[in-house]
């Protein structure tokens, strides 16, 4: 992956989780809660990831398998489209901002690429969606149609306990420019692998915030991408150091 802004000072790259961060609702959670094991069982597994060392990969594999046991993959895609998942109210303005400034932006997700592409295309239009770099897990289909019981998540990094180690994409940029400032936006436990490597983390969800607090990782809470844009803009303009964006759950270091 090539950097586009190495001449900029400071060089910045932005990464974001997709489900529940760029969108108001997590499409995986929607499927698991409504079509698979249900919310209670999902939360029990996530608590085991957070507190008992269960690899996120195994938790997520089991969650998706519970959906796949009941529904075909095409049925899942259709149900997620019907779920009326909405874009974060500030995302479009944020995306236009980073594009105008030549700041690389990458979606890094533990979700499955075909579902993410479908949702992004619906939300911002297929042409714009095709310009966004998406690095995600994929889907494994074991028969011709992905019928119930014949599909599952195909992990990008099957040997990693995260299934998709989001740090790899961030480290790739850092390898090209060790001084680059990397922003990562996320909300859930699938973002744990990225939380430590990024210069700044923004957590809008309780799970990632709880992880950062437990591991003593500084982060800046945010409510929407309008706030993220303000933070990135302030660092870009030299009004604040990225390391000073560390207000925890309350966020709000940049107020205007
Ligand atoms: Mg998420």
Report the principal-axis shape: globular
Taking Cα atoms only, what radius of gyration do you get, to the nearest Å?
Answer: 18 Å
Question: What would the average pLDDT be, to the nearest integer?
Answer: 89
User: Total domains, how many?
Assistant: 1
How far apart are the termini? 33 Å
Overall CATH class: Alpha Beta
Strand content: 5-15%
Q: Strand sequence of the main sheet, in spatial order?
A: 4-3-2-1-5-6
Q: From the helix content, strand content and strand pairing, which structural class follows?
A: alpha/beta
> Which topology does CATH recognise?
Rossmann fold
Please count the beta strands (DSSP E, at least 2 residues each).
6
Q: What's the tally of helices?
A: 11
Helical content band: 40-55%
The major pleated sheet works out as: 6 strands, mixed
Low-confidence stretches: 2-8
List bound small molecules. Answer: magnesium ion
Give the CATH architecture: 3-Layer(aba) Sandwich
SSE string: EHHHHHEHHEEHEHEHH
What does it look like?
- The protein is an alpha/beta fold.
- The protein has a single domain, classed as HAD superfamily/HAD-like (Rossmann fold, 3-Layer(aba) Sandwich), CATH 3.40.50.1000.
- It is built from eleven helices and six strands.
- Strands 4-3-2-1-5-6 form a six-stranded mixed sheet, with helices on both faces.
- Strand 5, helix 9 and strand 6 form a beta-alpha-beta unit.
- Helix 1 crosses helix 3 and helix 5 packs parallel to helix 11.
- The chain is globular.
- The protein starts with 11 loop residues before the first strand and ends in a 20-residue tail after the last helix.
- The site of magnesium ion has 8 residues, from loops.
- Magnesium ion binds next to loops.
């Amino acid at each position: 992956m090539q950097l586009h802004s190495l001449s900029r000072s400071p060089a910045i790259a932005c990464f974001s989780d997709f489900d529940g961060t760029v969108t108001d609702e997590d499409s995986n959670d929607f499927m698991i809660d409504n079509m698979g094991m249900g919310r209670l069982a999902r939360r029990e597994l996530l608590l085991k990831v957070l507190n008992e060392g269960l690899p996120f990969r195994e938790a997520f594999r089991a969650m998706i398998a519970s959906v796949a046991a009941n529904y075909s993959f095409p049925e899942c895609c259709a149900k997620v489209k019907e779920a009326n998942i909405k874009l974060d109210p500030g995302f479009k303005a944020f995306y236009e901002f980073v594009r105008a400034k030549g700041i690389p932006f990458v979606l890094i997700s533990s979700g499955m690429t075909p579902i993410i592409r479908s949702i992004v295309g619906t939300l911002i239009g297929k042409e714009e969606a095709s310009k966004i770099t998406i690095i995600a897990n994929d889907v494994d289909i074991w028969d011709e149609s992905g019928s119930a019981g014949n599909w599952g998540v195909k992990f990008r990094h099957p040997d990693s306990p995260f299934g998709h180690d989001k740090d790899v994409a961030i480290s790739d940029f850092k390898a090209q420019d060790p001084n680059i400032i990397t922003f990562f936006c996320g909300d859930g436990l699938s973002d744990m692998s990225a939380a430590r490597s990024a210069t700044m983390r923004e957590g809008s969800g309780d799970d990632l915030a709880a992880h950062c607090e437990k591991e003593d990782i500084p982060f800046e809470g945010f409510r929407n991408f309008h706030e993220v844009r303000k933070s990135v803009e302030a660092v870009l303009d030299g009004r604040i150091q990225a390391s000073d964006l560390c207000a925890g759950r309350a966020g709000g270091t940049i107020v205007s």
